[in-house]
């Protein structure tokens, strides 16, 4: 599903963020990406959805080689990905329903299918009763659930989440993890960068630990291994 071969990333200012990484993530896995601040986690995540391009080496996701992919094909590649950020990035003037439906409208799905799919996805994230609310009328946790619903409405094969619980209180964070586990149980591969030690140590999944741009630990049911 995701493969990196001898991947390096050096930014124009000379900072080497990724330093010779080799890794493979299979279909249906749930993977935490952990490590201290500045370790290279965000760059590692961004390489997966082609926000960043490797300086050397290749990243293959869903059969797309991200080293050689043409710019015009990047939107097509991203249709099979769901991407969730800790700052939500919802459209403030659109309702919950409209925020989630937008991704389907872009690919010209029929109105009838859009309604069916969106309401089903909102049911999965527990927000079916708030479809007509605007983002500012929701709590932070509810806004994050909308962001997750938007990310999964196209039934992506891979969900990439960059600190999805970073701005949330502990109780809300556990609720978000319930949603991510449910999505994973439905067959979607989940890759989640996180600083949340308690979640990683409680909900045991594969852990990829990054330090200095290198993978220093890769465990099937690992723990966090860092103090905040």
TrEMBL record:
Occurrences of domain ABC transporter (ranges): 2-228
Cellular component annotations (GO), alphabetically ordered: plasma membrane
Matches recorded under Gene3D superfamilies: P-loop containing nucleotide triphosphate hydrolases
Key words, A-Z: ATP-binding, Cell cycle, Cell division, Cell membrane, Membrane, Nucleotide-binding, Transport
Top-level taxon of the source organism: Bacteria
InterPro entries: AAA+_ATPase, ABC_transporter-like_ATP-bd, ABC_transporter-like_CS, ABC_transpr_LolD-like, Cell_div_FtsE, P-loop_NTPase
Membrane topology (UniProt): Peripheral membrane protein
Cell location: Cell membrane
SUPFAM superfamilies: P-loop containing nucleoside triphosphate hydrolases
GO-annotated molecular function: ATP binding; ATP hydrolysis activity; transmembrane transporter activity
Entry's Gene Ontology BP terms: cell division
Subunit structure: Homodimer. Forms a membrane-associated complex with FtsX.
Family: Belongs to the ABC transporter superfamily.
Role of this protein: Part of the ABC transporter FtsEX involved in cellular division.
Record-given protein name: Cell division ATP-binding protein FtsE
Organism: Anaerobacillus alkalidiazotrophicus
């Amino acid at each position: 599903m995701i493969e990196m071969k001898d991947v390096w990333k050096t930014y124009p200012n000379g900072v080497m963020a990724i330093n010779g990484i080799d890794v493979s993530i299979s279909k249906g896995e749930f993977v935490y990406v952990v490590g201290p601040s500045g370790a290279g986690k965000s760059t590692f995540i961004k390489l997966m959805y082609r926000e960043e391009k490797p300086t050397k080496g290749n990243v293959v996701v869903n059969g797309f080689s991200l080293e050689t992919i043409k710019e015009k094909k990047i939107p097509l590649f991203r249709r099979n990905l769901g991407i969730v950020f800790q700052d939500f990035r919802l459209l403030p003037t659109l309702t919950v329903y409209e925020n989630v439906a937008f991704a389907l409208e872009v690919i010209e799905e029929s109105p009838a299918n859009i309604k069916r799919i969106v309401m089903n996805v909102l049911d999965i994230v527990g927000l079916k009763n708030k479809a007509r609310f605007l983002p500012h009328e929701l709590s932070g946790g509810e806004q994050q659930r909308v962001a997750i619903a938007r990310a999964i409405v196209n039934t992506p094969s891979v969900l990439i989440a960059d600190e999805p619980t970073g701005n949330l209180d502990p109780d809300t964070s556990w609720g978000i993890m319930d949603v991510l586990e449910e999505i994973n149980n439905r067959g979607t591969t989940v890759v989640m960068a996180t600083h949340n030690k308690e979640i990683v140590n409680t909900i045991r999944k594969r852990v990829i630990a990054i330090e200095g741009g290198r993978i220093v630990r890769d465990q099937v049911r690992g723990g966090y291994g860092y103090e905040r």
